[in-house]
Design a protein that fits this description.
single chain, 837 residues, alpha/beta, TIM Barrel, Spore Coat Polysaccharide Biosynthesis Protein SpsA, Chain A, 8-stranded parallel barrel, 23 helices, 19% strand
Length: 837
């Protein structure tokens, strides 16, 4: 009996508004908040039409039951069929659609397979883009950790980002992302609309800590948990319900955009087989409910304030900020919090601030003669009746749950202050877009995933008694720097500063290039004031020495290179994260005044080529900064990229010039013993790695790389070859003669194919110590200098050396590769693997 051909995708029906990203959260296009309460569905054994879903009657009953349980979203691992789309649209449900492709193999090794994947993503998004019930497309799901290590994280991320671009071109109104998991925690696409993570943890504390880490990796985007569940066969149905309860609480308190429970039913097929040993379903295979279903119906849809909510005084200080003040006050009077007041401090504005305030009866207006930002903030603190003072700026728009998230942070008495992310709102024109992407924006500095060293003053809440204890804000900080000073002084009292990802505000960056550069000049002046008060916190060239990592100009996972990721030994770590200290890179010394000083020195010494080289290097350094920020903010087009490069070129010059002027005026000097950061950058590998080729070995019986590695160890020992194994930081499995200038290493991965068959790939690596290359370069420079001095005999010696290198190096590499192939094949034979040619 042959199955009927699948029906064509039906035309989309009206399903309401689309879901869009709004800072750290999701909302409908009409502005209504949207928290995803999702459940996964499938994959299933093919039905009579060959579709990976149940028969229509069962499908309809399942989806009706899902809607009745209170879920609003269904995650699919296969493309929705016409029957699925009809039922979902009729029930008012939404879909997260995973686009399946060959994620279990080394797809980057096959250009044909890469093209096929891109075509599949483009066709899927083009065919389904008209269905507003589809909340998001996931262009991939959990590429296996050792496979990512094999293909190199940066290359894999670049391919995923390309798929996201393709999907967005074909479905511009639908959210696009990739579902990663903790074993590839560094694999965060920079152009995704939200961060999707599959997480399985059995402890509320561990899950809460995991969410905090992922919120920082997400940056200014929503965080969505796309898989989370518990195996009933191991833990029992009551424990499943308990885990669902605290998981929902953690999602709300952690500022997440929602979560997807895995799974609706125990019926689950993978790789053509039914999975019977796991039972993750809310219902069993016969659709009998478990206790978690009753709990799901009763879960609160929103997060509630503390049992005794503290009174919070919101203070806005303004000086001629009429252009954005009304929008700010509109957002404040719409806050969803039971006990708060709003104080507007007018710092001697020439504009009609009082007239604007009259339009908001809930706002207490207070005028003062122009005295600066710190004095205005202190006045607001004196007038406040709340135990907590929440500061924001007149160019900010607060989220409706801003104070709700802030209030929970102060349930811990050791917390003196708390704050959240400040995110630029959607730009109204290209200038705003570029300025928002330019370096130097207000950013928080974190010591770990939750504790802060600095919180920007546009989103900062402080206990009133803690503020009084240190004497309030210092009056000399009139426009900027007051928040840095107050945070350092609060920490010096021994109390903590907490970062709260859900307490977000929209913060307008400057609207013009002139205003942006004026802001950076003001920041430089403020840094000079800070240096006078805190000399131990500044380095020799005047830059602040933060103890934590800066979040702002750079995404934390921007540099997935060898030595920055802890993969675990042999790449098997369950939680693999990227380690970084801050956004600073050595070449950024040449984006400020240093290169200008060196340029002038070169011109004075009549070295025009050296001056030209310094200028070119400074331009390249600015390009590195602008390219990084353009990738993170979606800036395209040559004019916008050139403008961003120009701002990246000017910003450090303007800021450092202002700081230098202030240092000279105030007599400020950095300490000779600056504080060292608490977060140290990872050690960079001392060797560069070159590939000498790949060998492939097949197994019909499921033999994996583990058996091959075990046999390789025996082969190396029998040959009396000294070797070391990966310590978790390196991109090799085993390295022979590791202490030599030139060593040999092996990297392996196993692909799992149908019916238990496996393909193991082995890459032969040549590792060369970096110092060897620098020594060779130094030798060439010295030779060139001596030749220029007239020692022409060195020309002959140089030519002989070049000929020797050209002839001997390839010969040596050939011998090394032959020896490595012999070792790898011997280990494969002992492990029962068959080489593929």
């Amino acid at each position: 009996m042959t199955s009927a051909p699948p029906s064509p995708i039906p035309p989309p029906v009206s399903h309401g508004t689309r879901v869009v990203a709004a800072g750290k959260f999701l909302q409908l296009a009409d502005g209504t908040s949207h928290f995803i309460r999702g459940v996964s569905y499938g994959p299933f054994k093919p039905n009579s039409r060959g579709e990976p879903f149940p028969e229509d009657d069962r499908l309809s009953a399942d989806l009706r039951h899902i809607a009745a349980l209170g879920f609003n979203t269904v995650r699919l691992y296969e493309l929705p069929t016409p029957a699925v789309l009809r039922e979902v649209e009729a029930l008012g449900l939404r879909l997260i659609v995973g686009i399946p492709w060959s994620e279990h193999v080394d797809f980057l090794a096959s250009p044909a397979l890469c093209r096929e994947i891109k075509i599949q993503v483009a066709a899927t998004c083009a065919n389904l883009c008209g269905h507003s019930c589809i909340t998001a497309f996931l262009v991939g799901n959990e590429i296996e950790k050792t496979l990512v290590r094999w293909m190199k994280p940066r290359r894999v991320r670049a391919f995923i980002e390309k798929l996201i671009e393709i999907a967005r071109r074909n479905a511009p109104q639908t959210l696009i992302s990739y579902a990663t998991y903790p074993s590839t925690g560094y694999l965060v696409p920079r152009n995704a609309d939200f961060i999707a993570v599959n997480v399985y943890l059995e402890s509320a504390a561990a899950f809460r800590a995991c969410l905090a880490q992922w919120q920082n990796l997400a940056g200014n985007r929503p965080l969505l948990i796309t898989e989370f569940g518990l195996d009933v066969a191991t833990h029992g149905p009551q424990q499943q319900a308990e885990v669902m309860r605290w998981q929902h609480d953690c999602l709300l308190s952690g500022g997440c955009a929602g979560g997807v429970w895995f799974a609706y039913t125990d019926e689950w097929h993978r790789g053509g087989k039914e999975i019977t040993e796991w039972q993750f379903g809310l219902v069993d295979r016969e659709r009998k409910e478990r206790p978690a279903c009753a709990l799901q119906r009763a879960l609160p849809p929103v997060w509630l304030p503390p049992s005794t909510p503290p009174r919070i005084s919101v203070v806005i200080c303004t000086h001629n900020g009429a252009a954005t003040l009304s929008q700010c006050l509109d957002s404040l009077v719409s806050l969803r919090y039971p006990d708060f007041e709003i104080l507007l401090i007018d710092d001697g504005s020439r504009q009609q601030i009082a007239e604007i305030a009259k339009g908001f009866p809930q706002v207490r207006y207070q005028f003062q003669e122009h005295a600066g930002l710190s004095v205005a903030r202190n006045l607001g603190a004196r007038l406040a009746t709340g135990s907590i003072i929440a500061y924001t700026d007149d160019d900010c728009i607060v989220h409706p749950d801003w104070l709700l998230h802030m209030s929970h942070a102060f349930e811990d008495e050791s917390v003196a202050a708390a704050g959240g992310p400040n995110i630029p709102p959607p730009p109204r024109n290209r200038i705003e877009h570029v300025v928002a992407a330019a370096p130097g924006a207000p950013a928080h500095v974190l010591l770990n995933d939750t504790e802060a060293e600095h919180l920007p003053g546009c989103n900062l809440a402080i206990r009133k008694d803690a503020l009084d204890l240190i004497g309030g804000f210092r009056a000399e900080f009139k426009t900027a720097g007051d928040d840095v000073d107050i945070c350092w002084r609060l920490r010096d009292t021994g109390r903590r500063l907490l970062f709260v990802p859900g307490a977000m505000v929209w913060h307008h960056r400057r609207f013009t290039i002139r205003a942006y550069l004026r802001q950076q000049f003001g920041y430089g002046c403020a840094e000079a004031l800070l240096m006078k008060e805190h000399p131990e916190r500044f380095g020799y060239l005047g830059g602040a020495r933060w103890r934590g990592g800066i979040y702002g100009d750079q995404h934390p996972a921007d540099h997935p290179i060898e030595g920055s990721i802890f993969h675990g030994p042999l790449g098997l770590g369950a939680f693999q994260v990227i380690y970084s200290s801050s956004s600073f890179r050595w070449w950024e010394w040449f984006t400020g005044l240093l290169w200008l000083a060196l340029l002038l020195l070169a011109l004075v010494c009549q070295q025009p080529w050296l001056a030209f080289g310094l200028l070119a290097f400074a331009c390249w350094s600015a390009r590195q900064v602008s390219a990084r920020n353009a990738a993170a903010t979606g800036i395209h087009g040559l004019p916008d990229r050139l403008l961003l490069w120009w701002l990246s070129f000017l910003q450090p010059v303007v800021r450092e010039w202002a700081r230098l002027r202030g240092m000279l005026k105030l007599g400020a000097r950095p300490s000779r013993h600056p504080l060292l950061p608490d977060i140290m950058p990872p050690t960079r590998p001392h060797k560069i790695t070159l590939s000498l080729g790949t060998l492939c070995f097949w197994s019909e019986t499921g033999t994996t790389r583990d058996a091959w590695l075990q046999e390789l160890r025996k082969v190396l020992r029998s040959a009396h070859i000294i070797f070391r194994e990966d310590d978790g930081w390196r991109w090799f499995d085993i390295e022979a003669w590791p202490w030599s200038e030139i060593s040999r290493a092996f990297l392996s991965v196993t692909e799992f194919h149908a019916d238990g068959r496996c393909l193991t790939r082995v890459r032969l690596l040549l590792r060369i110590r970096r110092s060897l290359g620098w020594n060779l370069l130094l030798w060439l420079i010295v030779t060139a200098i001596l030749m220029a001095a007239g020692l022409h005999m060195l020309l002959v010696l140089g030519l002989v050396a070049i000929v020797a290198i050209v002839l001997l190096v390839p010969l040596g590499v050939w011998f090394i590769r032959r020896e490595m192939c012999k070792l790898a094949r011997s280990a494969a034979t002992s492990a029962g693997l068959i080489e593929m040619h």
